[in-house]
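Chapter summary example: a protein plus iron/sulfur cluster.
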Amino acid sequence: MCAMPSKVFFADLRANPKRSLNDKIDALIQALEPAGRLKPGGLTAIKIHFGEKGNTAFIRPVLARRFVDAVKALGCKPFLTDCNTLYVGTRSEAASHLITATENGFAYSVMGAPLIIADGLKGHSSTAVRVDLPECAEAHIGAEIVEADNLVSLAHFKGHELAGFGGTIKNLGMGAASRRGKLFMHSNVSPEIAASRCIACGECILRCPAAAIQLVKRGPEEKAPLGSKHAALKSSKDPQKCIGCGDCILVCPTGAIQIQWDMQIPEFLRRMVAYTKAVLKGKEERGLFFNFLTDISPACDCYPFQDAAMVPDLGVAASLDPVALDQASADLVNQAQGSAQSQLKHAHAPGQDKFRDIYPRVDWEIQLDYAQEIGLGQRAYELVRV
Ligand code: SF4
Ligand code: SF4
């Protein structure tokens, strides 16, 4: 016998003087009956992407504030959170991350809740969570998200160059992973060191927790770059010792240590879903999930810009089932009229697959199929308009 489809609540953007978008967001939150879901008085992680500096497609802070107020009204203690990035950018350690978040509008005076970077100052606050899945026995998750009693996921739904789309599964699986976890999802091998950019400063050697890096002599043909501390030396990594923490990437002043973005897409997606399972472990009944279908750009908010939206703003969706929520959101985007002003080439008509049009090599359904297979939720849904 088939299970009942999961309910996905959806608020479009029609409004009037008696019913604003804020009112509709409040109605969406209440539709999930949060009082029966969140642990009373619990520390509540509101997982959101604060946006890379230069990007403006992320969820507006004033709208995120509605969730803070709703959590407080239930007597819980909300904090806004995300983990540091793997790549070197404006959110790769907590000080820059918090400055970027504040500059993007997520100040305490706006949000009414503190911002806590879940994996700490330099990404070392990471908790290993057992999942015992074929992709990984354990996942490395931002410690403060693991510690929290409740989880509210606010995801900006958009296209994504490796996942096809990024919604709730990606907001949690990738977004809540520490640097070590992110490197595991993106790469089969540890970072490579480009000798042509290494100035032999030794910073990576001091930082490496596995003593995997040492200075070695350059070959006779290898030229040291300008500014080298020791022209005859370069750093070299022992892949057998490397534990894949990613710390050396962050400290290298010349960008000589490079992530090998070599993960095959199906495996990348399965690992991301396995990580989502880890993030929700222990909070399976204490999570609320929301997708904002606004500024539906083709790529991730980790870029310092966003390209034109693929389809018009559609609304906000909510569910207790993260899989049904992402499935419904992908369907809503694909059912919309595509924008002629966007990256879309062929799939402008309602019903055509916008994500595959832009990323033809990415099968975005893998993340939904695998999430259903490992019990994160189901793809079958009933759309309930509020
Ligand atoms: S990834 Fe971590 S363990 Fe590997 S070489 Fe870099 S610092 Fe060392
Ligand atoms: S931190 Fe970068 S430049 Fe310095 S020794 Fe390591 S690889 Fe070379």
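Key point: Residues 46 and 200 are 42 Å apart (CA to CA).
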